[in-house]
Design brief:
Largest sheet: 8 strands, antiparallel
Shape: elongated
Helix content: 40-55%
Pfam families: PepSY_TM
Strand order of the largest sheet: 4-3-2-1-7-8-9-10
Strand content: 5-15%
Number of domains: 3
InterPro entries: PepSY-ass_TM
Keywords: Membrane, Transmembrane, Transmembrane helix
Structural class: alpha+beta
Protein name: PepSY domain-containing protein
Number of strands: 10
Length: about 400
């Protein structure tokens, strides 16, 4: 199909130029946030470390959440880990109890012995001081810190659309990398001694071929991370029916002022533990998530420190009605339709955690590679553009 190749070259060029800046940022930040917890803890030991209090036991996350909300009625705990790692604070996400009265922070570090708040910050704030650096980088990775406009999250959509373009361009780039199928070895080689342009070209083309499958996984999963409900779930559901999520089943308004009070987090954990025992689950409660719109608690089951996902399919969750304590939904790792299993693997694949520490190292390497491909692609375009301008000037001078 020789006639098709010029069109694909143009598509690859304009796709690449259009997405280069965004992919360079995503690649570089992705290489860093593969180790977000470790780097953040190293930068901010006062946020992550807690000293033991004599003659006091470590309080569970649910106990701490109830204590915090009693002591600070202006906030509501949205997420808490059930068990803090040894020597660590319990880090909670919080919301204002009254949306009309902002707190000025959305994340707190709590001493698990005393229940005292030892530090506060705005996770994801547009600040690059020591305390906010890693959350800043994390949010930059998936949204570029672009603001919402009329309820439309421009950054999330921009990076999601970039992921779609990148996914399509992976196939175009693979086709272009093999112009002559009988000489396929050249598309895998690097001309180390042939000058800077040829070497940069080979790093861009041959490097992309060697890493093609892994780059495609990153591209596709980036769409899942940003446009899960808008694009990926409807697409996957077309091939394999997906189990409706709790957010789709129970889109209810917030509690009216005259309703009964919801169960405490501690009571929700007790009920969830009983249900997990009935189902034969062996992992402990790892985290509790308050879902205002669904009037429900989400209770996750995983070991301490595994909140990002335990195993290739992530963590299992039970969802309880916040008033009755009735189980109203479940997401069970490794179970469900083919589509459910595919969706469960998206974050473990994107973060590399599906392969443990080695997978996170690989994701960091791939992030740097994406950054490099963006730079080399732009450099190749710039060199060719400069060459074409020089040729036109030479011809016009004749």
């Amino acid at each position: 199909m020789p006639a098709l190749r010029p069109w694909l070259v143009r598509l690859h060029r304009w796709f690449g130029l259009g997405a280069a800046l965004f992919l360079a940022i995503a690649g570089l930040t992705g290489a860093v946030i593969a180790w977000d917890h470790e780097i953040d803890a190293w930068l901010n030991p006062g946020f992550y470390r807690s000293a033991a209090v004599a003659h006091q036991r470590i309080l569970s996350g649910a106990e701490l959440a109830d204590i915090i909300m009693q002591r600070h009625p202006d906030l509501h705990v949205r997420y808490v880990s059930q068990a803090a790692e040894p020597g660590h604070s319990n880090i909670m996400f919080v919301d204002p109890a009254d949306p009309a009265r902002p707190l000025g922070y959305n994340q707190i570090a709590v001493n698990p012995y005393s229940g005292d708040i030892q530090a506060r910050r705005i996770w994801g704030a547009l600040q690059i001081d020591r305390l906010h650096l890693l959350p800043f980088v994390y949010r930059l990775h998936y949204s570029l810190h672009l603001p919402e406009m009329g309820g439309f999250d421009t950054g999330i959509w921009l990076m999601g659309l970039t992921g779609i373009v990148w996914s399509l361009d992976c196939f175009i780039a693979l086709w272009l990398a093999f112009p002559h199928w009988r000489q396929w070895r050249k598309s895998l080689a690097f001309r180390w001694q042939s000058g800077s342009y040829k070497l940069v070209f080979d790093l861009h083309r041959s490097g992309g071929v060697w890493l093609w499958g892994l780059l495609l996984v990153l591209a596709l999963t980036s769409v899942s991370m940003n446009l899960n409900a808008q694009v990926m779930r409807p697409l996957v559901n077309w091939f394999s029916p997906l189990t409706p999520r709790i957010a789709e089943q129970r889109a209810l308004p917030s509690f009216p002022a005259n309703t009964a009070q919801p169960l405490s987090m501690g009571r929700a954990v007790e009920l969830a533990q009983a249900e997990a025992a009935r189902r034969g689950w062996s992992l402990p409660v790892g985290g509790i998530f308050w879902m205002t719109a669904q009037q429900a608690y989400g209770v996750g089951f995983f070991s301490p420190g595994q909140d990002h996902g335990q195993g290739p399919f992530g963590n299992s969750w039970l969802y309880l009605d916040a008033l009755s304590g009735e189980v109203v939904g479940a997401e069970i790792a490794g179970q469900g339709s083919t589509g459910d299993l595919f969706m469960q693997t998206q974050f473990p694949l994107h973060s590399g955690r599906i392969l443990g520490t080695g997978g996170r190292v690989l994701v960091s390497v791939l992030g740097l590679a994406v950054f490099g491909f963006s730079l080399t692609g732009f450099w190749i375009w710039l060199k060719k553009r400069t060459g074409r301008k020089f040729m036109r000037r030479s011809l016009n001078s004749l």
